[in-house]
């Protein structure tokens, strides 16, 4: 099979997106939109955000999705920001500590921007 050399890296990546078995179906996971067995955002991304904050760095974020999963990504991300993510329960990215509030609110256009690409280019 042509893709066989990539099988091991693929399986490692998918494994890294798996929600630990003890959290699957838990109230904590469901509270941040994790209703299945996989995460929407790789944990290393959250680790990077924690590192940037510890280093005192300001930053901006861009989520690139296919559009249909943006609400799921935002639910997990906002849960992380509010310290509700089951893997990162002590994260504070919602402004309550005086730092920037990174949460996305679809009701507040100042918290996000959207670009669309159509068949026309």
From TrEMBL:
Origin superkingdom: Eukaryota
The organism's taxonomic lineage, starting at the top: Eukaryota, Sar, Alveolata, Dinophyceae, Gonyaulacales
Native source organism of the sequence: Pyrodinium bahamense
Entry protein name: Uncharacterized protein
